[in-house]
Design goal:
The protein is of the alpha/beta class and about 325 residues long. The protein is built from eleven helices and 13 strands. Strand 7, helix 7 and strand 8 form a beta-alpha-beta unit.
Length: about 325
C-alpha cells in the first residue's frame, strides 16, 4: 500500500484504539469491555489472540489464563496447573492451549489488576471468554447501531510460541478475516493487524491489511527506532506501535519529558505511529501529572494526551476510551 495513500485514508485524524476494550472500566478482553470502549468513542476494538487446544482463537492477554479468569476456582481443572517457558520467561498457571473451546466457555473473566481497579472486580464472573468471531460480530453490530465504523485491531500473541506447539495463530486469523469480508484493500470495517514479531506480520501480509510492528522499551528494540531501523520496518509493516516512552520519555524524577524524534522519523519512513498504552490512574501517569498519593485515582490524563497529540501521533492505545475521546475533541478544537 502506498504510504501517501495510507496516511490520507486515516479515519479519523487521531485514532482511538480501545486497548482490550474499556479495560479501565470492565475486566479486559470481554464483550462488555469491548462494547463500552466503542460506546465511549473508541474507533477500534483491540484484541490479544491466543489459541485453544482445538485451534480456536480467543481473546486473552496471555496464554496463561489464571490471572484473568476464575479457572483456579474450578476443581475439575486443578491438575492442569503447570509451568511453561514462553519467550524465555518461565510462567506458572493455567494455559489456554490446554483447554478446548468448550472448556474455556465454562470459565468467566476476572479483573487482572484488582489493586488498581477495584471497581472492576464488581464485574468478575459476569462475562465469558470471547472468541474472535464473537468480537467480529460485535464490531459489525456496533457499526450498524452507532452509525460509524468500529474496527478491529487483533494482535497475534506470542506467535512463535504458538507455532512451536503446533497451534499457529495466523492461518485461523486469516481465514476468519476472509470469511467475514475483512481482508483485502476495502474491508467492511477497518482492520489493523499487529504483532511484536515481524515473522508473524510476514505471514499476515497476504491479507492486504495494514500491519503494525509493536515495540517495547527493551534494548533490543532500539535499532528499530533509528531512521535506518524505521526504513527497515517500512519494508514489512505500515505502522509502528511503540511503547509511549519511546515517543516522550520520562525525566529523572518520573516527570513527562520532551518528545523524541521517533514520530517525525517514522512519518518520514511512511509509517503511522500508534503508541501504547495510555491509562488514566496516577499509578501509570508521569509524576508531575499525579492528582495525589492514591495510585487508583485519576490524574491529569488530558495533559498527557495533549502532549502526545501535539507530538504528532496518529493514534493511541488506551484503557480509557472516553478520556482519549474527550482529549482528542479538545485538542482538535484547539487546532
Amino acid at each position: 500500500m502506498d504510504s501517501a495513500v495510507r496516511r490520507n485514508k486515516r479515519e479519523p485524524s487521531i485514532t482511538i484504539i480501545s486497548h482490550r476494550g474499556a479495560s479501565g472500566h470492565r475486566p479486559e478482553h470481554t464483550l462488555g469491555s469491548y462494547e463500552l470502549g466503542a460506546r465511549h468513542g473508541g474507533d477500534f476494538i483491540e484484541i490479544d489472540l491466543v489459541s485453544t487446544s482445538d485451534g480456536h482463537l480467543i481473546a486473552r492477554h496471555e496464554p496463561e489464563i489464571g490471572g484473568t479468569t476464575d479457572v483456579a476456582e474450578h476443581p475439575e481443572f486443578a491438575d492442569r496447573r503447570t509451568t511453561r517457558t514462553i519467550d524465555d520467561r518461565e510462567r506458572t498457571g493455567w494455559f489456554a492451549e490446554d483447554f478446548t473451546l468448550a472448556e474455556i466457555k465454562t470459565l468467566r473473566a476476572t479483573e487482572r489488576i484488582p489493586d488498581i481497579r477495584p471497581d472492576n472486580t464488581g464485574h468478575n464472573g459476569a462475562y465469558e471468554i470471547p472468541t474472535l468471531q464473537e468480537i467480529i460480530d460485535l464490531a459489525g453490530k456496533l457499526t450498524a447501531e452507532l452509525g460509524r465504523r468500529v474496527g478491529i485491531y487483533p494482535e497475534t500473541k506470542h506467535p512463535a510460541y504458538h507455532a512451536s506447539i503446533g497451534l499457529e495463530l495466523e492461518p485461523p486469523l486469516i481465514a476468519a478475516l476472509h470469511g467475514n469480508g475483512l481482508a483485502g484493500p476495502e474491508p467492511r470495517v477497518p482492520v489493523f493487524l499487529q504483532s511484536f514479531e515481524r515473522e508473524s506480520l510476514a505471514k499476515l501480509r497476504e491479507t492486504e491489511l495494514p500491519l503494525v510492528f509493536l515495540m517495547g522499551t527493551q534494548e533490543h528494540w532500539r535499532p528499530f527506532t533509528t531512521p535506518d531501523g524505521l526504513a527497515e520496518v517500512a519494508s514489512f509493516a505500515d505502522a509502528i506501535g511503540p511503547a509511549k516512552d519511546l515517543v516522550i520519555g520520562r525525566g529523572p524524577e518520573g516527570t513527562l519529558g520532551e518528545p523524541t524524534s521517533l514520530v517525525d522519523d517514522a512519518h518520514a519512513a511512511g509509517l503511522l505511529v500508534h503508541p501504547h498504552t495510555f491509562r488514566s490512574e496516577n499509578r501509570f501517569l508521569p509524576a508531575d501529572l499525579h492528582s495525589g498519593a492514591d495510585p487508583t485515582a485519576y490524574g491529569s490524563f488530558a495533559a498527557e494526551y495533549e502532549e502526545f497529540f501535539a507530538a504528532g501521533v496518529d493514534g493511541v492505545f488506551t484503557d480509557h476510551s472516553r478520556h482519549a475521546f474527550l482529549a482528542r475533541e479538545i485538542f482538535l478544537e484547539g487546532d
